[in-house]
């Protein structure tokens, strides 16, 4: 659906470097530290930013300078979208869809995301999580072949995340959905594919299982302190000291192997800086 | 689309503004005295009507309409909707016209009041209509459009208010250099009809008929169209680049 070839984006410093990806139908999770280039990549995929170098094709058609086709095909829900506080969810969503010349019945989506009772209240009176759900309703209502969600579960409680995950799974058919997140459990539950960016470069592109395979050895042990442990991923206080979990070298003969997780793999491949 | 742009209007403020202007009209033209609206209502009275109501309207409505015209809010929406320049221009113009429609509605109500008070069969109906409706509608459009352009280019609502105040004051004192730049199109006509000078020196103004000159109207239409075109270009340039 979207092909990126050797894509560069430079603001005051390089934000993306030689990014090559073939993005097709399915759910793609975009992981990376803050500032890794996730939002920049999503903006380029939405046609709201133009790459500094490299090529971009949509459905096999090379895009020149115009981003019109990309904007028609994609909907981006930005991280922390700033809505007019005076307008209601229903009015805003209808206006945005009208501007995009898209007709959609939004009542069902408002119901799915639990917004029916607050759909006519000014957005300024709603909580951050509720406003985030308003953004999700707009993004899903736009019903474009490409859906780009920048940290869509930020501010959502566990029940709301569950609702989002259910809807994402049921509406993903025939679409390309790219979403950036810091919540690794979302990736395990939802994504067919994981792309990890680090300092503007793709450092992993594959299935969650393939990412898991890149996890280093994981160890756990009771230790008096954390000195000498390579990369501690969790620690809790016990009666005798600290129960630590770490990746890398065994570090102490008392250490026992533990089951690696996607988080371990992610931390390992982005931990070079 | 208009309804969405008008979402930021506070009806309470509009009612308050209308009540204040209505009171001013009633005090000035409620009956009795040389300037009452009636059979003897002259162009001097009309000029006073204009001089009181239009600047007040513009001063009050300009900040009130900031939520409708605010470029920051528009740009935010355009980015969220991933609009290109063409559609952003259409939406920007719709937003301006929605705000202008509020101004126009109040002007028409005030003009209607004046016309009904003087009687629709009075010989000076045409003059009253020009001075209280046609002039303020055309001139207000140019003033508000100029303010909108200033706010867009300088990225501050204060620029809009400053431009509106400047143009209104210059017009009220007949300092604008040409008919095309007159705020309402009425002050210059009223001046031409000889109703400005005599009252200022204590003389009674002559009876005069104010009508719209064809060339003057054409100049206004051309200038209004040009301002809208520049506004459309400004909106398109402020949309996310395609």
Would you spell out the secondary-structure blueprint of this structure?
The complex is a heterodimer of chains A (273) and B (242).
Chain A: E1 2-10, E2 14-23, E3 26-32, H1 38-45, E4 53-58, E5 61-62, H2 68-73, E6 74-77, H3 89-99, H4 107-112, H5 128-142, E7 146-150, H6 158-171, E8 176-180, H7 184-190, E9 193-198, E10 201-206, H8 208-213, E11 218-223, E12 231-238, E13 241-247, E14 256-257, H9 262-269
Parallel strand pairs in A: 3-8, 3-9, 6-7, 7-8
Antiparallel strand pairs in A: 1-2, 1-4, 4-5, 9-10, 11-13, 11-14, 12-13
Chain B: H1 2-5, H2 11-29, H3 43-64, H4 66-69, H5 71-80, H6 85-118, H7 125-154, H8 157-172, H9 187-192, H10 197-200, H11 214-238
Unreliable spans of chain A:
none
Average pLDDT of chain B works out at 75
Q: What is the mean predicted local confidence, pLDDT of chain A? A: 89
What is the distance, rounded to the nearest whole angstrom, between the alpha carbons of the first and last residues of chain A? Answer: 33 Å
Assess the beta-strand content of chain B as a share of residues.
under 5%
Number of domains of chain A: 2
Largest sheet of chain B: none
Shape of chain A: globular
Over all CA atoms, what is the radius of gyration of chain A? 21 Å
Number of helical segments with 4 or more residues of chain A: 9
Textual characterization of the structure:
The complex is a heterodimer of chains A (273) and B (242). Chain A is built from 9 helices and 14 strands. Chain A has helices at 38-45, 68-73, 89-99, 107-112, 128-142, 158-171, 184-190, 208-213, 262-269, and strands spanning 2-10, 14-23, 26-32, 53-58, 61-62, 74-77, 146-150, 176-180, 193-198, 201-206, 218-223, 231-238, 241-247, 256-257. Chain A has a 6-stranded mixed β-sheet with strand order 6-7-8-3-9-10, sandwiched between helices. Chain A has a 4-stranded antiparallel β-sheet with strand order 2-1-4-5, with helices on one face. In chain A, strands 12-13-11-14 form a 4-stranded antiparallel β-sheet. In chain A, strand 1 (2-10) and strand 2 form a beta hairpin. In chain A, helix 3 (89-99) runs parallel beside helix 5. Chain A is globular and about 65 Å long. The mean pLDDT of chain A is 89. Chain B has 242 residues and is an all-alpha fold. Chain B has one domain. Chains A and B meet through strand 6 and helix 3 of A and helix 5 of B.
